[in-house]
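[Meeting: bench + compute handoff]

Bench side (C.D.) handed over the final construct sequence. Compute side (W.E.) agreed to return the predicted structure before the next meeting so the bench team could plan truncations. Sequence as handed over:
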Amino acid sequence: MTKKARQYKRTTIRRLDTLSGNQCAWPGCEKKLIAEDEKSIISKICHIEAASENGPRYNPNMDDDDRRHFNNLILLCDEHHIIIDNKVNEGEYSVELLKEWKRKHENKQLQGTLQQNPTLLSLAIKAISDFDLEEVIDETVSKPFNIDEKISFNAIKRNKVLIEEYKVYYSKLNSLYTELETAGSFRKEKLLRNIKNIYLKVKGNYTKDSKEPMIVIQKNADNIIEDIENELYVMIEKESNCYQEEISFGISIIMVDAFMRCKILEKPEI
């Protein structure tokens, strides 16, 4: 095992914590992931497909970026972490089963958070739209495209699940954008322009003066998405007075929406 497989990105840990709901993802387990002092973290980050060759459910076709990615990690209590990582039990806890646990648990927490505090998404929207960024010139014209074709065209792998799961919020965000614009507290064009500007700068870090920029983008599409996400986290923490831990999931929803509006990555060639 290389150390990188366990060098989790800050954004990954935050997203795991937020979508855990402070509860073990083992179905029916009610154990908390934060101790009774409300400060000490007692959760265990478990690799669905092992971080090391000798671990359970090891996949030799993954690289360390795949192994440490949000999609391959699940938060459990200490007892259940030990159980599923026991090689003797490997046949009982398949990759498919653990991914299903993760999906159901996190979707439940996401839906619950939105219902209990619907303003959290509005806070994330406002924070991003308030950025004053130097505009990067973009002469491309957005045309209709198929989402699956765009995923394939950009060779997205690690973040395909994120896009497929969060694209259902497109209509909700559209309604929220309209509501906020009507109230005079928000301009959708500025939010999308800010995200587009961040994308263009991140893309430039990879393509530089390449004569085949699309090949470079396809090779680094997942890294580009994750760099944009990290940039948004850092900027919100630095520049926003309304930042709360709970709005972190809103960044991912807004990013997927921006992807669908072709503000992140490239549209398929017709």
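W.E. noted at the follow-up: The first helix runs from residue 10 to 20. C.D. will use this when planning the next construct.
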